[in-house]
Description:
Blueprint: H1 2-8, H2 16-37, H3 42-68, H4 80-93
Helix pairs in contact: 2-3
Amino acid sequence: MADAHHEEHDDHGNTVSAWFLTVSWIVAWTVAAVAIIFGGALVTWTVIALVASIALAAVAGVMKKVGLGRKEPRPVPPTREEWEAGREATAAAQ
């Protein structure tokens, strides 16, 4: 099941689209938080930040599709069996 989820959701990685999404969400939610602190309506600013987050995620997705996202598949860690076999081979070589 985890493999199926991983195939459906490819993360952005350390890329331009990932940094855009991270920074833009921080800005959107910080603006909303400051507005709420200074007397803005909680629900209104929460909805504004949520809508902005969705729009910015869509922009980051487009950025990823045009080549500003991960260019290679995400590295997959070895299984326990592979790791143990590699460890035994290293120990045997020493």
